Amino acid sequence: MGFYHVKHGHRIGGDAERIKAGIGRFAEKENRRRPGKQALTLTGIRLKEPAMQATSESAPPGAPRGQWGSRIGFILAASGSAVGLGNIWRFPYLTGENGGAAFVVVYLCCVVLLGLPLLFNELALGRRSGQDVIGAFRATRPGTAFVVTGWLCLACCFFVLSYYSVIASWTVGYTVASLLHVKLVFEHFAANPWFVLPLFAFFMALTVLIVEGGVERGIERWSKILMPVLILLCGVVILRSVTLPGAAAGIKYYLHPDFSKITGDVVMKAMGQAFFSLSVGWGLMITYGSYMAKRQDIVSSGAWVAGVDTLVAIMGGFMVFPAVFAFGLTPDAGTALTFKTLPAVFERMPAGMVVGAAFFFLLGIAALTSTISMLEVPVAWLVDEKKWPRRRAAWVVGTLAFVAGIPSALSVGGTAWLSQLSFAGKTGFLDIIDQIFGTTIILLICLLSSIYVGWIWGPQPAVEEIAASSAWFTRPLLGKLTPATLWKFFIRYLCPGIVFAMLLNMLGIKLF
Question: Fewer Cβ atoms within 10 Å of its own Cβ: the N or the C terminal residue of the chain?
Answer without folding.
Answer: C
